[in-house]
């Protein structure tokens, strides 16, 4: 069973220079934060992300004094707290003066990393009730820089950050988008395939158990599946198992099925397995239907567990990188939502590059794809908030 983490509550003092504290009790399904530029929306999301990961580098430059974030993980309530207000003796230099100094070109990357390491060492989350828990909890996080943070993505994959300009810069960004999108889809589809395979194996075990025992399960419904449907279920089941049994003709199967209660029970078990497979495939089916609705009629997105993510215009396959900026954003957002499972997913300005109509429908799309995820959005867009209940909107 995969871990599940959802945010319950957050208290942040001094956010974006406020004299008081921001206190939010999260809704389990949807939370939308809005406010003027500089109100602290991005900073607030960074604090939530930092609390769930336990890493403080991301909040070293965030303006706040202290924070306390409470979340639920597998039935446990966990609270993480941190203080940003250092004593002067805690730092070798004045923090604000150093940030100003860091903006100068003469400052080397080594100097910057050394100071950030010092800040991070002084800035640590405390976890309760178990102070020894030092780990990251599952969640999704999409910052504003999600499509263009070249240096960050390159550094993560072992390639030192480098300066890039013009076409080279855009090319690297496009390549990173394609790589991340493909990796995201394969991670989700592999998990879905494992669930399907487990359901098939469990079903096969139950079928063999029923046959070997020769007894009907008393817990099964007495409703008998019609013989024509039963024959299709049996054929489909064995095809999924990559087995080619020598089945009787449909007429002979139906004749045997009508008088063989054990066979009826076996088919009932197979029907339950097929239902489990259908449920596992429903999210990606809904995603495909959405892309078909959103994209132009001659353009289609292909999601294949083995070949990854692809795009076609008519019958011609084109690179994933050739999608428009808005199409790239919607693909990334909806795939991240799909992959979030029942966890929280934190998104800063989901409306970036999206047409107004897409903004208006975005929340409903995300809920339809994954009704179990906890959405936490920060936005400037009235369209994103248009159909959101008042109790799920928070002003910062």
Characterise the protein shown here:
The structure is a single chain. This protein has 396 residues and is an alpha/beta fold. The chain has two domains: 5-84 and 123-139 and 341-395, P-loop containing nucleotide triphosphate hydrolases (Rossmann fold, 3-Layer(aba) Sandwich), CATH 3.40.50.300; 164-339, no CATH class. Helices cover 46% and strands 18% of the residues. The chain contains eleven helices and 13 strands. The protein has helices spanning 41-53, 95-102, 109-122, 150-156, 166-213, 227-240, 250-259, 261-294, 325-339, 356-369, 382-385; strands at residues 5-13, 21-25, 30-34, 66-73, 76-83, 126-128, 140-142, 299-304, 308-313, 316-318, 344-348, 374-379, 393-395. The protein has a five-stranded antiparallel beta sheet, with helices on one face. Helix 5 packs parallel to helix 9 and helix 8 packs antiparallel against helix 9. The longest helix has 48 residues, at 166-213. The protein is elongated.
Key structural traits:
11 helices, 5-stranded antiparallel beta sheet, alpha/beta, elongated, 5-stranded parallel beta sheet, single chain, 2 domains, 396 residues, Rossmann fold
Number of E-state strands: 13
Q: Classify the helix fraction into a percent range.
A: 40-55%
The end-to-end distance, rounded to whole angstroms, is 36 Å
Secondary structural class: alpha/beta
Radius of gyration: 26 Å
Low-confidence blocks of residues: 150-168
Order of helices and strands: EEEHEEHHEEHHHHHEEEHEHEHE
Number of domains: 2
Q: Label the overall shape.
A: elongated
Oligomer: single chain
Largest sheet geometry: 5 strands, antiparallel
Mean pLDDT: 81
How much β-strand is present in the residues?
Answer: 15-25%
Strand order of the largest sheet: 2-1-4-5-6
What is the tally of helical segments? 11
